[in-house]
């Protein structure tokens, strides 16, 4: 075999012939033009490294082969000196001087900080951030994120509540709770960049400044408060729905104590897996319309009540009826199937009922079947009504979950109705009047 340091003259053309193999006599016998135009490797030379490429493919460029690196690696594999490499620390600079290759430092040191050691200084800056000065609309004609031009209808301007910049709708879809100094308890619109910064803090903000963790301000439901005289059919927030439901339960507690025969049977309430409490306004002649809002709660496995979820009810009635009335409904969900029906985004109810109201006193009794994308169930409806109305009708209603109201109350845009009703959420402090009214209702029925 020819010496590696000697210069040899070959009869064929090859750009990568610095390291020759075989004796000179065999090389001189090779024709001037051969196919393919790279050296033929014998089967005995299996350990030949073709400069980082597969020997069956043509070479793409000239690369120096360091035999010392190859031999050192082979010796390490044979002797087993490479075992336990994962437990070693990153190699020092002296190792690199020996031309020994190692894995990157990211294999030994994580590229992201561990969860148990967060960067508190960064979070502190965000939690103590001050409200920004919003940029005027005239400061830019394009989105500050995607550079889309603003238009009157298809691409309007939206300010980020955290940085004050102007963005299009697609670049500001996120909703986050703001730090304490913003004095905002409802989730606010933020741009995508600010959403990524604020998202890790949402758990802290939900448990500290959201509406659900605040103490209920309106908890007086007796005759000394004008709000307790009459429930309005539309509640603008979850706090309004909690007050309305507490007032409705207080009225039923009074009925249960004064005239037990007109109250909801204790046997039915004791087995109830949930309650839906709504205030609905109804008016019409032969064809009636009804609209109202309320909330639904379910009973947990330990006997306690879940957090509330807001509802909206819209329906029609047909039959021998005339007049108008304001009704406070209590819908008894007697099994888990009925509870899962209210976990649906939207469900339908069909039932028949008899209604009679004259002045401030009236009663409505209904039995209806409800069906939604989470299931179906049979429910019993009891209500007290005020107004001038009489009739026998067939009722059809659409009940939807007011997801925007839930988000504003709990502060979590990812929270679903199933999470609320099936016990994934703790009882909110703001709903304490509701739980007190439920306790009084069951205590009055047991007497």
Walk me through the structure.
By secondary structure, the chain is of the alpha+beta class. Helix 7 (238-258) packs parallel to helix 12 (432-446). Residues 1-63, 83-118 and 356-363 have low confidence and may be disordered. The strands form three sheets. Strands 5, 6, 7, 8 and 9 form a five-stranded antiparallel β-sheet that branches. Strands 1-2 form a two-stranded antiparallel ribbon. A two-stranded antiparallel sheet has the order 3-4. It has helices at 24-28, 67-79, 93-97, 120-127, 192-198, 202-206, 238-258, 266-270, 336-342, 403-410, 417-421, 432-446; strands at residues 158-159, 166-167, 174-176, 188-190, 274-298, 309-333, 346-359, 361-372, 375-401. The longest helix has 21 residues, at 238-258. 23% of the residues lie in helices and 25% in strands. It is built from twelve helices and nine strands. It is globular. It has three domains: 1-56, no CATH class; 123-209, Herpes Virus-1, CATH 3.30.40.10; 226-446, no CATH class. One of its GO terms (molecular function) is phosphatidylinositol binding. InterPro entries: SH3_domain_YSC84-like, Ysc84_actin-binding, Znf_FYVE, Znf_FYVE-rel, Znf_FYVE_PHD, Znf_RING/FYVE/PHD. Residues 1-60 are annotated as: Disordered. This is FYVE-type domain-containing protein.
């Amino acid at each position: 075999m020819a010496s590696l340091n000697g210069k040899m003259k070959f009869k064929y053309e090859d750009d990568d012939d610095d390291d020759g193999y075989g004796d000179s006599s065999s090389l001189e016998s090779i024709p001037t033009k051969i196919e393919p135009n790279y050296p033929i490797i014998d089967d005995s030379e299996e350990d030949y490294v073709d400069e980082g490429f597969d020997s069956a493919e043509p070479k793409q460029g000239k690369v120096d082969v360091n035999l010392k690196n190859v031999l050192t690696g082979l010796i390490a594999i044979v002797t087993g000196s490479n075992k336990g490499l994962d437990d070693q620390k990153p190699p020092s600079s002296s190792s690199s001087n020996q031309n020994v290759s190692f894995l990157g430092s990211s294999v030994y040191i994580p590229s992201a900080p561990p969860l148990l050691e967060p960067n508190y200084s960064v979070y502190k800056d965000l939690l103590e951030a001050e409200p920004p000065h919003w940029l005027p609309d005239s400061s830019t004609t394009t989105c500050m994120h995607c550079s889309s031009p603003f238009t009157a209808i298809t691409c309007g301007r939206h300010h980020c509540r955290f940085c004050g910049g102007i963005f299009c709708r697609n670049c500001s879809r996120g909703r986050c709770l703001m730090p304490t100094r913003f004095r905002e308890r409802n989730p606010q619109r933020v741009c995508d960049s600010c959403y990524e910064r604020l998202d890790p803090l949402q758990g802290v903000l939900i448990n500290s400044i959201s509406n659900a963790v605040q103490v209920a301000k309106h908890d007086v439901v007796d005759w000394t408060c004008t709000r307790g005289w009459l429930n309005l059919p539309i509640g603008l927030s979850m706090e309004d729905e909690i007050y309305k439901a507490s007032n409705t339960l207080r009225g039923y507690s009074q009925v249960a104590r004064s005239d037990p025969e007109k109250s909801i049977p204790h046997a039915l309430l004791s087995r109830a897996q949930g309650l839906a409490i709504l205030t609905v306004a109804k008016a019409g002649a032969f064809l009636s319309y009804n609209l109202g809002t309320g909330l639904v709660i379910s009973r947990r496995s330990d006997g306690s009540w879940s957090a509330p979820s807001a509802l909206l009810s819209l329906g029609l009635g047909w039959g021998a009826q005339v007049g108008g009335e304001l009704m406070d409904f209590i819908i008894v969900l007697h099994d888990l199937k009925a509870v899962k029906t209210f976990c649906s985004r939207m469900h339908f109810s069909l039932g028949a009922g008899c209604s009679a109201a004259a002045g401030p006193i009236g009663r409505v009794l209904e039995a209806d079947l409800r069906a939604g994308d989470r299931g179906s169930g049979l429910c019993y409806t009891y209500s007290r009504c005020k107004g001038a109305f009489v009739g026998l009708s067939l009722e059809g209603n659409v009940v939807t979950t007011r997801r925007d109201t839930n988000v504003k109350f709990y502060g979590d845009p990812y929270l679903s109705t199933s999470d609320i009703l099936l016990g994934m959420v703790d009882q909110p402090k703001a709903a304490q009047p509701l739980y007190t009214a439920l306790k009084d209702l069951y205590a009055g029925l047991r007497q």
